[in-house]
Specification:
single chain; 290 residues; alpha/beta; Rossmann fold; 8-stranded mixed sheet; two-stranded antiparallel sheet; 20% strand; globular
């Protein structure tokens, strides 16, 4: 694939981004909060699990320069590509579902006028095949919000909502991404971690030395005879990434309390369970220079 990857700014070579010192300080706090905007996809019938443009933009701003190449291995609705276009970065995203690729392309066409200096591309293919498309040491950032194992592969109970709001149009529906056996969204946690590790092992040579890979994930709550148990998907992902050759640099918490409204009582009065919709993890890895 012919796509740009060289910086076009005039920043010092030792700088990892184009931010000013004042802008840099904002990113140092390990708790991030975002708001969705009108351009964000919020309709679960279009895509069951999206993340805001602001999240992708924050990561792109922190870890790349203008003109560099951003990769999203699980591009979904195309949010990363939209943010990259806003910030004058080249970007490529991959997804198994043709519908999501078409959605990504549609969203890109609705953004500002085309910039001939950068490209943003959505490709329908398995993420395992990414090394066939990109040259080694050309990617400055990989950022994605992948499926959280088989979290969606079960009837939706809406337990985070107030009782009278739970029976909405999504109640008891299974909103998984697909039935494709390659889809991470239908895998059990260990199989999921192995798949993540295999994909990112192939991506590693494409990354520049000390280039960052950011993965947004959440806990998985699994129901069992005692009411359920917490599965630490971030732990599975971190273990898989380290085995694939990456190094964990930062763990950031996405504070989602501003996005949760009219919540119900969860677990009361006998079982204390934190409300998972109020937070997620943003795991920041890099390719070590050696």
């Amino acid at each position: 694939m012919e796509i740009g990857y060289k910086r076009t700014c005039r920043c010092a070579l030792s700088h990892i981004n184009c931010l000013t010192a004042k802008e840099w300080v904002k990113g140092q706090v390990a708790i991030w909060e975002f708001a969705y905007e009108k351009r964000d996809v919020r309709d679960k019938n279009v895509h069951p699990a999206t993340f805001p443009i602001a999240l992708a933009a924050q990561c792109i701003g922190l870890f790349t320069h203008k003109g560099e190449l951003v990769l999203d291995p699980f591009v979904g609705s195309g949010t990363t590509l939209v943010a990259a276009k806003d910030l004058d970065r080249n970007a490529v995203g991959f997804d198994l579902k043709k519908e999501y690729i078409e959605l990504s392309q549609s969203r890109l066409s609705q953004t500002r006028l085309e910039d001939p200096k950068t490209q943003q591309m959505a490709i329908c293919d398995d993420a395992i095949n990414i090394p066939q498309y990109l040259k080694q040491e050309t990617v400055s950032l990989a950022v994605t919000s992948p499926p959280y194992a088989n979290m969606l592969n079960r009837p939706r109970l809406n337990k985070s909502m107030r009782g009278d709001l739970r029976r909405n149009e999504h109640f008891l529906k299974i909103q998984q991404y697909s039935n494709d056996p390659r889809d991470l969204g239908i895998m059990e946690p260990e199989e999921y971690a192995n798949a993540i590790g295999k994909i990112y092992r192939g991506i590693l040579p494409l990354m520049r030395p000390r280039a960052h890979s950011v993965i947004n994930v959440a806990d998985l709550w699994v129901r069992n005879g005692e009411g359920g148990k917490r599965v630490m998907i971030p732990w599975y992902v971190t273990k898989a990434m380290e085995e694939a050759g990456y190094e964990l640099r930062n763990m950031i918490f996405w504070d989602r309390r501003n996005l949760v409204n009219r919540v119900g009582i969860f677990g009361w009065p006998s079982n204390y369970i934190t409300l998972g919709t109020t937070y997620q993890y943003i795991l920041d890895f890099w390719r070590p220079s050696n």
